[in-house]
Amino acid sequence: MRATIRIFSSLLLLAWIAVPAHADDREDAQYAQQCPGFAAWKKAHPELSKKNQAKRIAAGKPSEPKLRQQLLRMVKVDQAARDAWIKVGMKTGQGGEAAVKHLLAVDAANQVKLKPIIKHQGFPTPSQVGMDGVEAAFLLVQHADRDPAFQLSVLPQLVTLHQQGLISGQDLAMLIDRTLRGQGKPQRYGTQFISNDSHPEMKLQPVEDISALDARRAGMGMPPLADYACILSMAYHKPVRLEP
Question: What is the pTM of this model?
Fold first, then answer.
């Protein structure tokens, strides 16, 4: 078993689509207290919120409700496994072996179910499975790390969906970074961090041309790296290290 597992803000993404509408106010209060830089950025970019993105998609029932429910069930198990891992301090050695083993088993089982879906019909769209179904499918692809060829094969479909305004720049940036790291290359948007038992803080993985990183992030509708790091630390209850 690998001693290092890549982590990213999957829990934050899910929180934006799975909580009641009034939860935005609670989130804003948390951010204002713990991550004021991110709170200010979020307030200045209301058009990028999940709620407002959803409003841009035509209203109506998803055309594939059974597929939507399947994706939501899969991601519920995915997130429960990650919650359990976080509760043991995201350890991969002593104290965390069972959580890691379960997490990897969940990822493998979900991948077996997800690959035939995408092969048969392509990456799901909001009209088929709703915005929450799209986010669920996105998270499941992100967590298919043991099959980087599969992740890479999905990437062109997400590029097209982003160009059509159907997925966020943040979602696309995360998968781009994930596939680059899977090839041993520096990431482009600074979404990927590592944490292990020897160095329990979350450490930024290598980034190409880091001097222009925040400009690239802004181009994808993402907050500056320092503000992103703050909400990661808040979500995962770990310090974040941005320097090499």
Answer: 0.80
Residues 20-37, mean pLDDT to the nearest whole number:
67
Residue type, 36: P
Q: Six-digit token pair at 48?
A: 């990028």
Pairs from 90-94 (Cβ < 8 Å, separation ≥ 24):
90/5, 90/7, 90/195, 90/200, 90/236, 90/238, 91/197, 92/1, 92/2, 92/3, 92/4, 92/5, 92/196, 92/197, 93/3, 93/197, 94/197
Q: What is the pLDDT of residues 37-72, one digit of tens each?
A: 988 998 898 877 655 555 555 556 899 999 999 999
pLDDT for the residue 4: 38
> Residue 49: what pLDDT?
65
Q: Which residues contact 73 (CB under 8 A, 6 or more apart)?
A: none
Task: Classify strands 240-241 and 5-7 as parallel, antiparallel or unpaired.
Answer: unpaired
112/120 Cα distance (integer angstroms): 13
Number of neighbouring beta carbons within 10 Å of residue 19: 13
Distance from C-alpha of 47 to C-alpha of 13, rounded to nearest angstrom: 16
Beta bridge partners of 157: none
Specify the pLDDT at position 113: 95
In this structure, the number of other CB atoms found within 10 A of the CB of residue 16 comes to: 19
Length of the chain: 244
Q: Would the pLDDT of 235 be above 70? A: yes
